[in-house]
Amino acid sequence: MNIFEAMEARHAVRDFTDQPIDGAVLDKLRAAVAEANADGGLDIRLVHDDADAFGGCPTHYGRFKNVRWCVALVGRDDADADVDLDERAGYFGERLALTAVSLGLDTGWAVLHEVAEHNGFWRLEDDERMPAAIALGHATRPGRPHRSRPVEELGAVEGDGALADAPEWFMRGLQAAQLAPSALGKQPFRFTLLSDGRTVHAEALEGVQSDIGLGIARLHFELGAGHTEFVWA
C-alpha cells in the first residue's frame, strides 16, 4: 500500500486486539518517528505497554480499548517556528499515521488529558506539551469511513473566481483534504487559491482542536496536489 492508498484506507479505530506488531514494522515506525522529529523539530515518542500505552490518561472524547502502542506527539512551542506546535503535531502525526496504515496497522487519533500525571511512559520537559497521541495496533473490527464536508466548503478561489475553474491540482488537493480526520469529524479548515493561481492560503476555522486538524489537512492537501504544483502563502 502506498501513501495515497493509505489516505483512503485509514479509518479511525478505538478497539484493538492483542496481536503484536511485527518487529520489522516497528523498526520502520521508529525510523519514521526519527525522521518526523528531525523534519518537524519535535520530540515524538513511540510508546508501548501491554495494559495501556496512554499511561492511564483520560481521553478528550471516545473510549479506547487495549491500546498497547501509541505515538506520543510531544514538542515545544517555538515563537520562531513558521508553524505552531499543534499544527506541526497534526501534520507530522498524520504522516506517521499514514505510514502505519501503509504497513498494515490501524490507528486512532486521541487528545489526552493529565499527560503530566501518567504512568511514567514519557517525560515532558518544562517547556514541552503533548497536543495529541495516536493509538496503533490491529483493530478488532475495521474502521468506518468518516463524513466529509463537500469540496465547496473546504476550498475557494480568491476574488470572483469559480471553484469549478480551479486547476486540477487544487481540486486533487481538496479531494485529499476530504479524507483528513478531525475532531468530531467537523473538518474546521479551508484552503483558498490566491489570484496568482499558484499560492494557497490554509486557515483553521473555529472548532475543536482546529489547529491540529489544519496540520493533518495540510499534509493531505500536499499529497493530493503534489509538492511541485503550488506554494503555501
Automatic annotation (TrEMBL):
SUPFAM superfamilies: FMN-dependent nitroreductase-like
Domain Putative nitroreductase TM1586: 2-225
Pfam entry (one): TM1586_NiRdase
Domain of life of the organism encoding this protein: Bacteria
The protein's name: Nitroreductase
Protein's organism: Bifidobacterium amazonense
